[in-house]
Each structure stands twice: as C-alpha cells, then as structure tokens.
Write a structure and sequence with these properties.
By secondary structure, the chain is of the alpha+beta class. It has one domain (2-99). It is 23% helix and 28% strand. The protein is built from two helices and seven strands; from the N terminus they run βββββββαα. Strands 1, 2, 3, 4, 5, 6 and 7 form a seven-stranded antiparallel beta sheet that branches. A hairpin with a 4-residue loop joins strand 5 and strand 6. The radius of gyration is 14 Å and the shape is globular. The termini are close together.
Length: 114
C-alpha cells in the first residue's frame, strides 16, 4: 500500500510510514514516521541520523523541526512549501492553525497497523 501525492510517495511500514531512500548528492537519506514510538527518524547512508518526537503542533512547527533536523545533517532538499491537494493552500511554514490531538492522529494510524 502506498500513500501518494504528485511529488512524493509514502510507504506503509510495520511501524508507520517511510519515504524510502531519497538520493541527495553523494548520499541517500530516508525519513520514517514511527507511530509506535511517536517520533520522526531520519537516516542517511553516511551513518548520520536524527530524530524528534511527533507531538501535537501546528504544521509550521512540524515543518520548522523537520527542516532544522535535516539541516543539522547537512541535507537541504528543495521542497514545495504548499500542499498540492487543496484549493487555496497555505504554505507549510506559515500554517499556524492549531494542531489536532494525538488521539485524532491515532484514529488514522491505527487502521494502518491492520
């Protein structure tokens, strides 16, 4: 099963979702949403990695945390800052709408585990 947008595909794993390997310069990195431990993990082929907790926050805060962690690893991907799936999208870095609760997020995650 895959979840896809025009620009990227997320694949279901035993623990959540993954980007699968993404080429970046001379190395490759992967981003995993670990819904078991409630954290986002980044792994690179040079042995470096990072992580941060998945918590209730706005899209802007999540985007900032993701870009900061990628930057800490020397990864600066070109990412379209607007979602493609909605009319009149708000840029990720400007989307400060209050987040949903962890229980609401789990209502999506639990069916992925089945």
């Amino acid at each position: 099963m895959t979840l896809s947008t025009p620009s990227e595909t997320l694949y279901v794993t035993a623990r959540g979702l993954t980007t699968s390997p993404v080429p970046y310069g001379a190395r490759t990195f992967q981003i995993d949403f670990d819904f078991v431990n409630h954290e986002l993990c980044i792994s690179a082929t040079d042995g470096r990695g990072g992580r941060f907790p998945l918590r209730a926050c706005s899209v802007a805060v999540f985007y900032r945390d993701l870009m900061r962690e990628l930057g800490r690893l020397g990864i600066y991907p070109e990412i379209c800052r607007k979602p493609n799936e909605v009319n009149h999208p708000t840029r990720f870095d400007l989307d400060t709408w209050p987040s949903s609760t962890l229980s609401a997020a789990n209502s999506v995650v639990v069916p992925l585990r089945l």
